[in-house]
Amino acid sequence: MITKLEDAASADAAKQAFCDKELTQTKEEKEDKADDVKELHTKNEQASSKAAKLKEEVARLQSELSKITKSQAVLDRLRAKEKDIFEANKAKAEKGLAGTQMAIKVLKDYYAKDDSASAASGIIGILEDIESKMTAYLADLTSDEEAAIAEYNAMSQENGVDMAAKEKEVDYDTRESKELGKSMAELSNDEDTTQDQLDAVSKYRAKIEQECIAKPETFKERKKRREAELAGLKE
Length: 235
Hints:
Blueprint: H1 2-112, H2 117-212, H3 219-234
C-alpha cells in the first residue's frame, strides 16, 4: 500500500512539474504572440492609412497637372493669335510707311528740279509727320510684341517648372505607394501566420488548463474517492 502511495505521490509531483512548466511557458508565449499580432495589425493599419493619403495626393497632383496643361494650351493659342495679329499689323504698317517714304522721295525729287519747291513743302511736311507717326506706331507695335513674347515665355517657364516639380512628386508618391503595397502584403501575411500560431498556443493552453487546473470536487466524487482510499487501506 505504501509503495502505491509513494508511486502515486511521485507521479503527482512529476505531473505538477509538467503542469507548472507548460502553464508558465504557454502563458508567456500566448502573451508574446498576442502582442505581436497587435503590433503587426497596427503597422498594417498605419501603412494602409498612409497608402490612402498617398493615393489622394497623387490624384490631387494629377488634377493640378491637368489644369496646368490646359492653361498652357490656352496660353499657346493666345500667343499664336497675338503673333498672327502682330505680323498682319506690322506688314500693313511697313507697307504704309514704305509708301509714305516713297511719296516723300518722289515729291522731293520732283520739286528739287523746280523753283516752286516751296509750294510743295506743306504737303511734304504733312507726309513727313505721317511718316514719323507710322514709324512710332511700328516701334510701339514691335515693343508690345516683344513684351508679349517675354510674358509668354515667363509664364510658360513657370508652368514648366511647376509641372516638372509635380511630375516628380507623382513619380515619388507612386513608387512609395507600390512599396507600401508590398509592405502591407508582407505585414498581412505575417499577421495571419502569427494569429495562427496564437490560436494554436491558445488551444494547447486550454488543453493544459483542463488537465492541470483542479476543479472543485462534487460530493459524489469526494465520497467515491474516500471509499477507494478506505478500500486500499484494508488491503
